[in-house]
Fold this protein.
Amino acid sequence: MEKTFNKHITCAFLYSITRYGYPPAAENMPQYIHEMADLGFQSIEIEGIGENHLKTVYQKRHDIKKALNERDIHLPVFCTVLPGIASPNKKIAQKNMDLFEIGCELTAYWGAKGILDNGPLVPYEFPSNMPIHRHYSPEVLINVSLSKSLSWEAYWEGVIYQMDAACELAAKYNLNYYLHPCMGSLTDTTDSYLLLKRQVNRPNMKFNFDTANLYYMHENLSLGLLKLGNELDYIHISDNCGQKIEHQALGNGQIEWDLFFTTLKQIDFSGNLSIDVGGDESHIEDINNAYIQTAYSLEEKITTYEIY
């Protein structure tokens, strides 16, 4: 019998991104599902990255569901990448909200519990021909500007309105809305997320605790876990050395994992640990081995600290 990992250990879509580039062809999504299942995962992520990619995923939705069912794979979240959802430009924001509803429909159709996206992005004026990035580096962000007509107060009110509308739309499909921390977003730390959460005050707004990104942002991970407490149910797991944006296999960075899992036990964590290793920034030669070894390491930690 082939090895299968704990059902709470998820293979993030960064696996397919690392193998096939960003974004990987949406029409091949059933293939990616089978490849992640072949590694031994019972739980995976998939993504719809921008308008064209998301719409192609929608066209393939039945084939995707068939692949999930054939391999008895659970999909805890579906990830969309819609950076314009909190744009100060109302037309752009509405277009992205319409795309977000497509994402919600897909998420519900596949039986996932939530839809995940980056936290609202600061409205930097990027060059018009700049492609979608997984992560905006400090070098990129330090050299982009903001509109001279931007009013922070008006923009913040708009963000609250859009996030409230997104939560309401997700709730219509009985979904949680997970915000991902990344550089350039308004939820790059647990504190910034909690500030937004207090303003929006929707119970289905959640935080995707990304260990590598938060560590790079100098977050104290254990303190962050305690702040979120039993509200936290989804974590992206990867290691980081604290010097650059990277997503390394567990143990190949400087995160103190024993302390991390001690705190997970303290908050009675019972959600998903999603392995989010790879990307061009991480320079991993054997991505299959990185995922498999990280999954084994997680199983060991789960047993040692009696998680679940």
